[in-house]
Amino acid sequence: MERTFETVLVEQCAPTLAGMKPASLFRWQGGGARAFTARWARELAPFGIAIRVLKTCPRTGDSLIYLYRAAWLRRILADRDNCRFLEAAGYDLERGCGGLLEQLSDRLCLEREFPHEIGVFLGYPLEDVVGFIRNGGRNYTCCGCWKVYGDPDEAQRRFTRYRRCTEAYRARFRAGVPIRKLVAAA
Q1: pLDDT, tens digit, for every residue of 169-186?
Q2: 15-43: buried (b, 16+ CB within 10 Å) or exposed (e) per residue?
Q3: What average pLDDT does the chain have?
Q4: CA distances from 115 to 26, 112, 119, 132 (A)
């Protein structure tokens, strides 16, 4: 199948489109990222889903695209433990959800180190985000969509659900089902 923006969107974001995961992140290499995200922002807004470019590489033109369920992300970012973690990482919580995403985008673009706190914005368990940072990506209990530092059995069940969802969405999309029909209502 041709590697269109829509194909990559389905392949990389199926669990978020299905309402199983609060957010997804993917790299788009084909140019035109801002136009594509503007179009899909309009298409997906009625479902409570937002999409934005977090970073564009000035050298290659590749973009990091972030798709998220806005209400779910606001709940994650309002969680007391997540707030403490993000504040300790230097985030200004007074700026709200949009401001936190701007700060994340700035960190992706300006800092030498990758901002591993992005896991919070993707809905990863805080235990796993903190574990990854503290352990430098080593000593994990299992690895799938991310490195796990908590319960490996629960993580494997979640990874299996995400994989099955992605396979089903990919097959339905290839069969001609439009993305709007694949989206679970908020």
Answers
A1: 999 999 999 999 999 866
A2: bbbbbebbbbbeebeeeebeebbeebeee
A3: 95
A4: 15, 9, 9, 11
**Mean pLDDT in residue range 101-130:** 94
**Cβ 51 vs Cβ 66: under 8 Å:** yes
Look up the pTM and report it.
0.95
Distance CA 185, CA 165 (A): 16
User: What is the end-to-end Cα distance of the chain in Å, rounded?
Assistant: 29
Torsion angles phi and psi, residue 106, rounded to 5 = -60, -40
Q: What is the DSSP string of 5-44?
A: HHHHHHHHHHHHHTTSSSEEEEEE-SS-HHHHHHHHHHHH
Return the SS3 of 68. Answer: strand
Q: How confident is the model at residue 1 (pLDDT cuts 50, 70, 90)?
A: low
Element (H, E) at 88: helix 80-88
pLDDT of residue 77: 97
Residues with Cβ within 8 Å of 50's Cβ and at least 6 positions away in sequence, in order, are: 41, 44, 67, 68, 69, 70
- Tell me the three state secondary structure of residue 50: strand
